[in-house]
Please model this.
Amino acid sequence: AAMVQKYQSPVRVYKHPFELIMAAYERRFPTCPLIPMFVASDTVNEYKSEDEAIHVIERRCKLDIDAPRLLKKIAGVDYVYFVQKNSLNRRERTLHIEAYNETFSNRVIINEHCSYTVHPDNEDWTCFEQSASLDIKSFFGFESTVEKIAMKQYTSNIKKGKEIIEYYLKQLEEEGITFVPRWTPPVACKSESSTCHPRRPVSPAINIPESATKEGLSNKEILNTSSSPLEPTAGTPDDKLDADYIKRYLGDLTPMQESCLIRLRQWLQETHKGKIPKDEHILRFLRARDFNIDKAREILCQSLTWRKQHQVDYILDTWNPPQVLQDYYAGGWHHHDKDGRPLYVLRLGQMDTKGLVRALGEEALLRYVLSINEEGLRRCEENTKVFGRPISSWTCLVDLEGLNMRHLWRPGVKALLRIIEVVEANYPETLGRLLILRAPRVFPVLWTLVSPFIDDNTRKKFLIYAGNDYQGPGGLLDYIDKEIIPDFLGGECMCEVPEGGLVPKSLYRTAEELENEDIKLWTETIYQSASVFKGAPHEVLIQIVDASSVITWDFDVCKGDIVFNIFHSKRAPQPPKKDSLGAHSITSPGGNNVQLIDKVWQLGRDYSMVESPLICKEGESVQGSHVTRWPGFYILQWKFHSMPACATTNLPRVDDVLASLQVSSHKCKVMYYTEVIGSEDFRGSMTSLESSHSGFSQLSAATTSSSQSHSSSMISR
Model:
């Protein structure tokens, strides 16, 4: 199997003018003592324009790769040759470098592209960027060894690149060269050239050698590198990360980790128009999956869908926790730990989990925990600014004093597990440390119930103290400053966290009241929500007058798997009778369910299918569009997708807990939004609405057929 590795660097900014950087760069040739493997280089081709603005030079470089003797013997070579083509444009002040391997070019394909350009906000600074790809087709059965060697050599050279430029800059300075004049066009009239000097002269057709545009780097992109690292603007497609910003706000990353972050972020900008998460949050998902870009992308997309469904971005601004929570939820933020991480204190032992679940329902409790996590993200950002170093996680101190059997009440444990699951999935790598204090004797029982649901990485961060051990050596003082240890733990700091206590039974609500409440939380959005049952699809009618309109849809499958269809009919369906809902209206107090297609209609005679059916799995977020060919009535349909019965899974100890997390088998839930756009308005936003399944990295066959049929309907117009 061929392996393709890609690398994309952040932008490195040199606070020196382009011409001086070029003078330093030129000194690397023909050989460079700082790169011992770079043995020699010969000029193969050279071109200079008459006015000397353009200088293209092609060199053949000889490298002595540090590889095992045996491998060199098998490969039958001592040296590896690369061709490097440098295109310098003194007028535009750009240098583009392209390199590829000549040796083994039929087995291994290496391409590298680098550029030195002027900083968009300061013409006396220079930006450097680099991207590369390595594709190993075959190598005598040593593909993975070669890949490791190549990656190791490559990453060490990336680190060296900056040192080398700085080394030669210093050398130039020692020789008294601190300024290199800019190129000026050879003009007779001197006075004019000096006045119009700062403006860029209009360049002739020869302007940029093909190599610059070949890699698909438009001029705009080359010039639009990230501006001031202080205020990274969120999500403008041209903004790029620069190396100093990464170090200051995100931490020490290896070159490949930086590359994963940049590539995942770029992918998000291209596919998720609009809101994309902050850099530090993207990084958390990469860390949670050991920088495996495909796995990280999958969990991140699922989380973005989930955020959209539950309007999580607006929780802090729009949601006011019910009074019961403010009075009886014994948790709150309390200063920060010794590492500068925000500190959250939870007096779980004092908290009546059963009472809270009965008075609020799981949904409101979950919402509250989400708002705490959102606040945590905000505090991390704040502390990163205050402490001058990246802080991306918080510390949680859980006091179990008072924990008893009441805490093992089943629905309470179930709520806890669901909350842990949701937090694990959507706030990975946010828990820096968990200090569990005053663990009583029942604790191990609770722990065996909960620990299978907790990610291994997270579990390593748990410290558990029984009784008063936390006061001894290796205790709390190692992690938290004496001044802020809360009073209830024998410290001197007043802690504002509510003390909890029993929730009065008068505040308990019935299951029905809570069920209705849950629905309310769902619908505070522009989305409609619908229920889909076996034998009862949900259908929406759209009437089209202007033949070439575009119907667009955006829906999330919240529960179950469904099939999505779009039909066309010349005749209007009968308006649905209210009683057609039959028994279903009882089971779904908030989701609507409407059938429009008459039972006597025949497909192909009364109505026709205009897109191939799309199977959508639970949790997926689907956007798409259909260009209408005819006026008339279009029906969007969400239909129950019946699965083959699966063998019963062997449930672990916590079987009742898991069973309740399973999807109920006969009902699906969809949140949808549809809109009709005139085709001319649509062309502009076409790219943003290409049928995209943001949910998964392996696109199902159904998806591809959907985008094919989509393009065919585009063409047939």
Summary: The radius of gyration is 31 Å. Residues 1 and 171 are 47 Å apart (CA to CA). The chain has a mean pLDDT of 79.
